[in-house]
Design goal:
There is one protein chain. A hairpin with a 2-residue loop joins strand 21 and strand 22. This protein is globular. The strands form six sheets. Strands 1, 2, 3, 4, 5, 6 and 18 form a seven-stranded mixed beta sheet that branches. Strands 8-15-9-10-11 form a five-stranded parallel beta sheet. By secondary structure, it is α/β, with parallel strands linked by helices. It has helices at about 20-35, 60, 75-80, 140-150, 165-175, 195-210, 255-260, 310-325, 385-395, 405-410, and strands at about 10-20, 40-45, 85, 90-95, 100-105, 110-115, 120, 135, 155-160, 180-185, 210-215, 220-225, 230-235, 240, 245, 250-255, 270, 285, 290-295, 300-305, 335-340, 340-350, 355-360, 365-375, 375-385.
Length: about 425
């Protein structure tokens, strides 16, 4: 039976989901899969139906996938499951006592349970020139559409940030014939997510494809001509000429309305949730990129995970809590990145590792890096090595241990070490 929501509000739903990305869409799907019969609404700040974000910096930017192929489900799917989609609405306030949210246009919606799946906004450059035309992030469809509209007049691109987004965009733009320079503040690319062996491999690959990788580089300003970006000025005074700048320096969790409502949080690190994705506010859950949680595969440390796996698994946890069959969140984190003809698959979290083993031959462009902590396998980075990824993921989940010789020997299947 649908819940009754108190108060006189324009429209009320048993479950309101804020955010129309992977997490929000999967939350609605999981509720229906678990026989939830109440009313559901998904409120998104973009005009589109829920769609995949990871292909934006890969297949969509390259033109290999149309936007229609990025849709998580067609319109008919949501209609058949009686899920109301309310696109193009920015939620600006949450009132836990009235169980209501307010959107930017002043509309108010009531809820019995609220699932916050708003993700995050791309972090902007704070330096001079960060708001010039030709300076872009890769977070939404509209970001990439604008880049694509400008590309015909662009030959030189500066990519600020050597993480997944920056390197994926660099790979695509290089294949499209652009001259690309990657500017990374740390002394290696992918420093936040991988060990030195993976970083050096990808630096070499990009350089082999003609990308100019600059490490330990501090951006001082983005210069412009007639309001349009024309170069990136570095702290040492050098100017990197370009007609387009892509900024990939992370996200800021979109949680301000929850924070204002009193949710426990950590500044710039999202809102805190328990093992069932409940926030500190009554009947409000948070999932996906914006949810700060104690993760079993980070030795209980409170972290955020920006991944499709985390979005989907947290969505299922929240749905089960809402229908009264709670199951705590415990999933091996996994990620992937496609660059050129390389598929990087990561299982686990390598942060805090004390040993790093290379398995296979990087020169063969098919190998893995195994990360250990006190003799326990905690993560793997697998480059064109799908079998290692599958077996390694099982090994991590089991808290597996093996000798360095076994792990480094590619003739021994990792699944056999579980």
């Amino acid at each position: 039976m649908p819940y009754k929501t108190q108060g006189t509000i324009g429209a009320s739903f048993d479950v309101v989901i804020v955010g129309a990305g992977h997490a929000g869409a999967q939350a609605a799907i999981a509720l229906r899969q678990n026989k939830f019969e109440g009313t559901i609404a998904i409120i998104g700040d973009e005009p589109e139906l829920p769609y995949e974000r990871p292909p934006l910096s890969k297949d969509y930017l390259s033109g290999e996938k149309s936007f229609e192929r990025l849709l998580l489900r067609p319109a008919k799917f949501w209609d058949e499951r009686n899920v109301t989609i309310l696109p193009g609405r920015q939620v600006v306030a949450v009132d836990p006592s009235a169980k209501a949210i307010t959107t930017e246009d002043g509309s108010r919606f009531g809820y019995h349970r609220l699932i916050w799946a708003a993700g995050g906004e791309a972090r902007r450059m704070r330096c001079l020139g960060g708001d010039l035309q030709g300076v872009h992030s890769v977070r939404k469809r509209s970001d990439v559409d604008q880049i694509l509209a400008e590309l015909p007049a662009v030959q030189r691109v500066a990519v600020i940030g050597g993480g997944y987004i920056g390197l994926e965009a660099a790979a695509v733009l290089t294949k499209l014939g652009k001259t690309v320079t990657v500017l990374e503040a740390q002394n290696r690319v992918l420093a936040r997510v991988a060990g030195p062996a993976i970083s050096r491999f990808y630096e070499a690959e990009h350089r082999a494809h003609g990308v100019d990788i600059r490490l330990g580089t501090v951006v001082e300003a983005i210069e412009g001509t007639s309001g349009t970006a024309s170069g990136v000025r570095l702290a040492d005074g050098e100017v990197i000429p370009c007609e387009l700048v892509i900024v990939g320096i992370g996200i800021i969790p979109s949680v301000d309305p929850l924070v204002t409502a009193g949710a426990r949080h950590r500044p710039d690190h999202g809102v805190w949730v328990d093992a069932f994705c409940c926030t500190s506010l009554p009947d409000i859950y948070a999932i996906g990129d914006c949810a700060l949680h104690a993760n079993a595969f980070a030795d209980g440390a409170e972290i955020r995970l920006e991944s499709v796996q985390n979005a989907n698994d947290m969505a299922s946890v929240a749905a089960k809590a809402i229908i009264g069959t709670p199951e705590s969140y415990r999933s091996v984190p996994w990620f992937w990145s496609n660059q050129y003809d390389l598929r990087l698959q990561t299982a686990g979290l390598s942060t805090g590792h004390d040993e790093e083993l290379v398995r296979g031959d990087p020169e063969a462009r098919s190998f893995s890096v195994v990360y250990l902590k006190k003799g326990r396998v905690i993560a793997l980075d697998c480059v064109n090595a799908a079998k290692d990824y599958v077996g390694g993921k099982r090994l991590i989940e089991a808290g597996g241990r093996a000798t360095a010789e076994q792990l480094a020997d590619p003739t021994i299947a990792l699944k056999d070490l579980v």
